[in-house]
From TrEMBL:
Protein name in the entry: HTH domain-containing protein
All copies of domain IclR-ED, residue ranges: 68-213
Molecular function GO terms recorded: DNA binding; DNA-binding transcription factor activity
SUPFAM superfamilies per record: GAF domain-like, Winged helix' DNA-binding domain
GO biological process: negative regulation of DNA-templated transcription
Alphabetical keyword list: DNA-binding, Transcription, Transcription regulation
CDD domains assigned to the protein according to its UniProt record, in alphabetical order: HTH_ARSR
Pfam families linked: HTH_IclR, IclR_C
Domain annotation HTH iclR-type: ranges: 6-67
Lineage top rank: taxon: Bacteria
Organism field: Streptomyces aquilus
């Protein structure tokens, strides 16, 4: 800690991070041990966070992340979209296909940013806000691949006709971005994805990841 920082705020943020990393919540004693502070301090932190709906406590006394976090999270998508747009524009213009950034939203893949090429005669209409199951389409499958393969190895994913007849997709997962699970990809009207597209999509995913770090 430095003179310019707040110890109380730092501890409150650490509480939220600890709760976000567990599915079953934490007790006051567990939080006290993890933070290295006494239980009285933890009680005060939890009471303050509860007032803002950022933390809730169940009947057993275990603290969990509260629904107030969702209100803060709604502002994340615009920030992520803005950071990703330069790489998506470059990808769309280079490949001549619709480029997109897709994030996980529950059990679905949600397109939060879409850029269409300016010079093609036709391309796939793919809109921000489009949702689909994670296990269908290149964008969702790329995200799932990052969950199941060792870090740094997922590469890119190719699909054809899974979301729209006659359309092919290529996507690569975002890697190394804390708190963001998603992918960058393109969708095109083609029977197969040209060979150079996969590596180009991986480059774009790296660019977006760097912009978000």
């Amino acid at each position: 800690m430095t003179a310019e920082t707040s110890q109380t705020l730092d501890r409150g943020l650490r509480v939220l991070k600890l709760l976000a990393d567990t599915d079953h919540g934490l007790t006051v004693t567990e939080l006290s041990n993890k933070l290295g502070v006494n239980r009285t301090v933890v009680y005060r932190l939890l009471a303050t966070l509860e007032q803002h709906a950022l933390v809730r406590r169940d009947l057993g006394g275990r603290a969990r992340v509260g629904l107030g976090v969702l209100r803060l999270g709604r502002q994340v998508h615009p920030l992520v979209r803005e950071a990703a747009l330069p790489a998506l524009r470059s990808l769309a213009e280079d490949i001549g296909a619709t480029a997109h950034l897709t994030l996980v939203d529950g059990a679905e893949a949600l397109a939060v940013a879409v850029v269409e090429p300016t010079w093609t005669d036709y391309h796939v209409a793919y809109r921000a806000g489009f949702r689909h199951p994670l296990d269908r389409g290149a964008a969702g499958r790329a995200i799932l691949s990052a969950r199941t393969q060792p870090p740094g190895e997922p590469g890119y994913t190719l699909t054809h006709g899974e979301l729209e007849a006659g359309a092919s997709g290529a996507a690569a997962p975002l890697l190394g971005v804390t708190g963001v699970e998603g992918s960058v990809g393109v969708v095109m009207l083609a029977d197969a994805v040209p060979e150079r597209v996969g590596p180009r999509v991986m480059d774009a995913a790296r660019e977006v990841a760097e912009a978000l770090r």
